[in-house]
Amino acid sequence: MKAGALTLFGALALAFVARPVSAATIEVTIDKLVFSPASVEAKVGDTIEWVNKDALAHTATVKGGWEVMIAPKSKGRTTLKTAGAVDYFCRFHPNMKGHLDVSP
Amino acid sequence: MFNRPTAALAGLLLVSAAPLAQAADKPTDPQIAHIAYTAGTIDIEAAKLAIKKSKTKEIVDFAKDMERDHVAVNKQALDLVKKLKVTPEDNATSQSLTKAAKEERAKLAKLKGAAFDKAYIESEVAYHKQVDSALETLLIPSASNAELKSLLETGLKIFQGHEQHAEHVAGMLK
Fold it and tell me: What is this structure's pTM?
């Protein structure tokens, strides 16, 4: 019984150590046409969750890259696939700008 | 016997003359609400015309963005005046805006194809410039209610974005 418990503990510990670092979800809020925080550091595999508090639709658009549409008073998600530093903006309100630093 | 009340009345008139003189160039909150709502309605009407007339995807998409945003902002404005129990008040600025917009729409309605696209997007750039400058220099500084001021400030950011968006679309057509 005791040995069984120890083995189980060992297996759990091993699983914990061996498990890859889980991807994080980072929240970026949009309120009154401002992305907050304006600059985010993330890793490939992380997800950005866009929380739009405005009554307007917005986008997070990377020129020549990806785009996510964020409906009014709702959320959008983007999983980061490539490393690098990117500037993004809202296609409907190009004066809304943000920045992502994505490490491998 | 009549002297004192008359003096008091004269005093009152003197006091109230100052805010009245100000009201001539500085709009009141009910007037500001009316101007803001009118300006939004004008852009919605222009957008509807463009959606109906244009065959260019960029123009139709832009017009749909304008319609959607201005409907959302006008709804917020209506909700706010209802909450504040303010009745929007028609005024000379609203009337001249409406008159100018009617003329602009009549001009646009006669155009077709690329000529329409160009005239519409250029009028959108000019119109948003005009509205942004009115918000910055007159409407926001004149608003006395904090919530109205805040809505106008958000409106200014939205319309500055529209101005940039319109300039971008205008650039693509060239």
Answer: 0.81
